[in-house]
Amino acid sequence: MLKRLLVSLFLAATAGLPALAQTPPAAFETKAAQAFMIEASTGTILLAKDENRPISPASLAKLMTMDVVFDAIRRGQITLDTDYPVSENAWRTGGAPSRASTMFAALKSRVRVQDLIQGVAVQQANDGCIILAEGMSISDKEFARRMTQHAREIGMPKAVFGNSTGLPDADSKVSVRELVTLAQDLQKHQDLYKYFAQPDFTWNKIYQRNRNPLLPLSIGVDGLGTGFAEGEGFSIVASIERNGRRLFLALGGLNSDKERTEEARRVLEWGLGNFQSQRVFADGEVIGRASVYGGSASSVGLVAKTPVDVYVPANNPDRLSARIVYRWPLAAPVEAGYQAGTLRVFSGSRLVRELPLFTDAAVERGSLSRRALDAFVELTESLLFSWLWDSPTAT
Predict the structure, then answer these.
(1) Which has more confidence, 253 or 350?
(2) Are 362 and 338 spatial neighbours (Cβ–Cβ below 8 Å)?
């Protein structure tokens, strides 16, 4: 116990927030094996269940294919009018002969990027994915490496993609938390994200409706996609916007297509109907202080770059608390605006928001005598901590 307490003292400072109610709300249960849902404007985590477990992306890999394409368009590397050839591999693996999700692109024809995006976003077309992958990279496999690299760039630390389609691949993996991160990144491309809500698409004289089962319900869902993996069940990633409030949701491990649709709707409705926004720190407010050694001041204020809001249960909210975590100690000189720590906000025992904190002022190097004193104090505390950590009586 003593070791853990000292670690907490050295690495974290706790900022108490006022109690918002006496009775916590009843826990919400989902049928999904994995679940993760956030409120977009605050980043508040509303639901988390085994959210970091690696699962097969299945057809949800197509969302990463779209994000790579959207990013390439944003960077000017390709345009909506760029066209790519339909190879025999794309036609045979993902086209009409495959009898899987397809936009029925004709062999040896050329298809514009805009049409390929619609084929993938609306119909989850495997041939559309492969045509884009082969056109933008040497091969589908090479494009998959680009997908994995892009995942790292947008904050998906462990996701791996083996192909552009999500067809069975032993190495492919992603978590529902990462899928929400991906959905957030896709939604930033406002002019392209709209294709996920397109109700239908006709290609090669074949009319097909959007495969997203939540769109016809008219509840505010405007994307994104579904998946199925043998042995892991049915999955879905969705975004809903209603009355200015947007939620992102990812569910995995559901037992049927019907259960996936019903459960996704139930979770989204719960998220929209049972929470309200609560401001916990104002813009520019000093949230806490971090110790500085060898500086002209012994500590420096820590601030967020935006107001800190959380999305809390409306009827029976939990008690809120916050913790500042930083690597102890900060060593002078310290620049103003330096990212020095992280704020973690809890609703009861549940982590609901995490965001970076920055120093509110610069701290110059202190005098020689001040630096010597701080060095002595730091050494003494480090030795004490080390002794307590190694002591067999410290538990």
Answers:
(1) 253
(2) no
